Amino acid sequence: MRVEVDVPKCVASGQCVLLAPEVFDQRDEDGLVVLLEDTPSAELHDAVRESATACPSAAIRLDES
Prior knowledge:
- The chain is an alpha+beta fold.
- It has helices spanning 15-19, 45-54; strands at 2-5, 24-26, 33-35, 60-63.
């Protein structure tokens, strides 16, 4: 799995950080997403998928090929 984020689309809801804190964080100054790990380990895949689904702005894209 490869994770990409579209920072300009982010609305700083923080759902990704709550669901997968090992993969996502938020910038202190504006709360926008920070991608910590673009190729998370297999045990994090379910949480990352849930983060992508929960993102209200669809700023998280997954490549599972």
